[in-house]
Amino acid sequence: MEIQYQQRDLVGIVGGMGPLASTAFLSTLYDFTLEGVEQEAGRFILYSDPTVPDRTEAFLGHRDEIVFEMFVEILRALQRLQVQKIVVCCITLHYLLPRLPWELRQPIISLLDPIFIALQEKREPHLFLCTNATLQLRLFQSHPLWESCSGYIVLPQEKDQQAIHALIYHLKAGKDVGLASTMVRDLLDTYHVDAFVAGCTEFHLLSRYLVSTPNDERSYNCIDPLTIIARQLSRMPCQEGK
């Protein structure tokens, strides 16, 4: 007798920026979707290309085109593999989304939208942690929900922003996540808040670290769009498959 399994949509992941964050996201996806037999777990294609130039350096240096061309190439490769949805594991790269043709942009799940929805639900101040490019290009400030949520976003001062940017590259290099957690706790104390917005996908590494930390040792929370999206994808209805 042939067993019928429930088949999920095929999801493409634009990764490699950095590679540790996107592979951690893949693990999170399976944390949420591998709840029964493995045949009914999520179906994902991770396109991890760390050779994409540094987005902050490229965008602030007005050298967008090479990043844009590589981004389009990756999206077209995923399109040829017939993915139904795409998650771009780099928030700074979302700066290029408005330039994409509709057929490439349409399957992409925004990482910005779930952040603003969560802010509207929580209605409490969050320290905003992101790259220099995301901040200077006003990526979040251009979102339609910025005005209604700006009262819940605490932007760091310049010296602290530089420390946050350096911390992102600390995480990219695979260095101690526990040390990064301590640094974030110190920043939150400085700004008198108890939570932060993961405005860079590198902070997904910290988000996973917090999940593994005993509750009595956790002292702050975060809005992590990759975790939110992983949970949402796990709840998507399945299709009949073999």
Q: Topology of this structure?
A:
Layout: E1 5-7, E2 10-15, H1 19-33, E3 43-48, H2 55-60, H3 64-80, E4 85-88, H4 102-105, E5 108-109, H5 112-122, E6 126-129, H6 132-136, H7 146-149, E7 153-154, H8 158-172, H9 177-191, E8 195-198, H10 203-212, E9 221-223, H11 225-234, E10 239-241
Parallel strand pairs: 2-3, 2-4, 4-5, 6-7, 6-8, 8-9
Antiparallel strand pairs: 1-10
Helix pairs in contact: 1-10, 1-11, 8-9, 9-10
**Cα distance spanning the termini:** 11 Å
Sequence of strands across the biggest β-sheet: 3-2-4-5
**Radius of gyration, CA atoms, in whole angstroms:** 18 Å
- Overall tally of domains: 2
What is the highest CATH level, the class of the largest domain?
Answer: Alpha Beta
* CATH arch. level architecture of the largest domain: 3-Layer(aba) Sandwich
Low-confidence stretches at least 5 residues in length (pLDDT < 50)? Answer: none
Note the overall shape.
globular
- Sheet with the most strands, sense and barrel status: 4 strands, parallel
Description:
The protein is an alpha/beta fold and 242 residues long. The chain has helices at 19-33, 55-60, 64-80, 102-105, 112-122, 132-136, 146-149, 158-172, 177-191, 203-212, 225-234; strands spanning 5-7, 10-15, 43-48, 85-88, 108-109, 126-129, 153-154, 195-198, 221-223, 239-241. It has two domains: 5-111 and 229-241, 3-Layer(aba) Sandwich (Rossmann fold); 112-224, Rossmann fold, CATH 3.40.50.1860. Strand 8 (195-198), helix 10 and strand 9 form a beta-alpha-beta unit. The chain is globular and about 50 Å long. It starts with a strand and ends with a strand.
